[in-house]
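Homework help board

Subject: predicted structure for assignment chain

Our instructor gave us this sequence and asked us to write out the predicted structure in token form, then describe one feature. I got the tokens but I'm not sure how to describe them. Can anyone check?
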Amino acid sequence: MAPGGTAGIESRVRGALDDRGIEYEVLGCDPEYADTAVFCRRYGVAPEDSANTIVVVGKGGERTYAACVVLAITRLDVNGTVRQRLGVRKASFASAEETMQRTGMMIGGVTVLALPDELPVWVDAQVMGRPSIVLGGGSRSMKIRLAPGALLALPRVEVVPALAR
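My token output:
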């Protein structure tokens, strides 16, 4: 867990949003229901308005990482677009342990809203077409609803066509 535990990461997420003047809504979540499909059913969020942050790793030589944001109704093109953008022969989802090491966040709560500045962020173009999206809030007990355009205020964010199918 990140320094400061759940409260620390949630505070970091809120601070990142507040520092950039981003409007957002905090949605509380029972950690048992944090995984996307279960969360959407339990809390009445349409899957097409839910966006997942997925940490990927390029393998071969030095490992390279990126964070990808895709709608829950799509699949990240890890073997095509992601692999090509990382410039590697093999790419995959980062393990839960690697994700925790890189972000300080647990699977089910990972968010682009408070990532280390050195981690590139790729947002699938389809995400930008939604009126609002629900993202992880840094922990399994908090989600954030905001306008997808707000993601462009974050460091190292790039909108990528065909990142997901």
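Reply (TA_rk): Your tokens look well-formed. For the description, you could write something like this. The longest strand covers residues 51-59. That's the kind of observation they're looking for.
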